[in-house]
Amino acid sequence: MPTQTMLQELKRLLLDTASGGSRQLTEVESDLVQTNILLGEAIGKLGGSFMDLHRSVQEQQQILEALMNGSQALTAESIEQLKKTQSAVSQHVNEAVTGLQFQDMTSQLLERIVRRVIGLREALGVLSANSFEILPEQGQTDHELESLLANTVNSIEERLNVLEHGLWKAVRQTRMESGDIELF
Fold this sequence. Notes:
The chain is built from three helices and two strands, in the order αααββ. The protein is mainly α and 184 residues long. The radius of gyration is 30 Å and the shape is rod-shaped.
């Protein structure tokens, strides 16, 4: 017959496993939503930057063609136009690099999701492994079962705690020229 302590430990184990697993799955869901937002931002920034870059290069090409075929003379104004288009090209390249930073942050989020899933699987693995220690056919004593349940609860709590505190909430991008970005 299970003792009161055994039933309390079993209840605590089930509650901890359910709530810890649920919290981790909520975080996975949140990370996936953030990943989707970042991918949308990256695609939007890259698409806009490349279209702007294309327009600037076309404008530069038109100026150069006019100068080369003689329909426009090399003047201070044409030189200034070339400088403006060159500056615009640099700006659009920097904007494209910013779009690539979003891709890097998306990769960080995906890595965090994978670590979270692995940690959750490990916590559930502890539960599974310890369940094999319950041997009804061998007539374990109530004290042995209480001890096993207490150890299982402690192991699950420890793994979920490590998982909860071992993952950064923010994703960062600091390796590219456009500047530092931190989200979430």
